[in-house]
Design brief:
This protein is mostly beta strands and 165 residues long. The chain contains three helices and twelve strands; from the N terminus they run βααββββββββββαβ.
């Protein structure tokens, strides 16, 4: 039988518990957990909707671009070095600013890429944990407001437990 953590939260307060802790508790009650699946976007802090204002060729790299990106009230205009090719000026994309932690414990920090300062990273769906597409940036075609936290835009996450009954 499969049931979701969101559904279980309607009956038992599980806030603050990890999927592993919940799985262990279910097993302790006498039910074998055969699998755990994660769906939707994980909770991401310091990741916002941004709009690409400019895109110029990187002076020291053939496949990189130097962009200015407006993240609105979340941080203003930032300079970001990007290797994706599927976007253009005016596109709205997820922007991870310094301090963000992406799935896989990938910490975003201000850094120099081939001599050019980058204030964050524009993200693909796979980098945000919402899909497997890594061929380019996740373009937000519904054009949410600048500076909106990405978790307010992407579908909410849930964990599904597959339990042997």
């Amino acid at each position: 039988m499969k049931f979701s953590q969101n559904w279980l939260n309607d009956y038992v307060d599980l806030s603050g518990l990890t999927a592993d802790e919940i799985s262990h508790a279910i097993t302790f009650l006498g039910f074998e957990v055969e699998g755990v699946e994660h769906h939707g976007a994980p909770k991401l802090s310091n990741v916002f909707v941004g709009e690409v204002l400019t895109r110029d060729k990187h002076p020291n790299a053939d496949k990189l671009s130097v962009c200015t990106v407006d993240v609105g009230p979340a941080g203003g205009v930032k300079t970001i070095v990007c290797g994706a090719q599927n976007y253009g000026v005016g596109d709205r994309v997820p922007v991870a600013l310094a301090g963000a932690v992406l799935p896989g414990d990938f910490v975003i920090k201000q850094s120099k890429i081939r001599g050019q300062l980058s204030d964050g990273m524009m993200c693909s769906g796979r980098e945000l944990g919402v899909g497997s597409d890594h061929s380019g940036l996740l373009i937000l075609t519904d054009r949410p407001a600048l500076g909106t936290p990405i978790n307010d835009v992407l579908p909410g996450g849930d964990t599904v437990f597959d339990v042997e009954i």
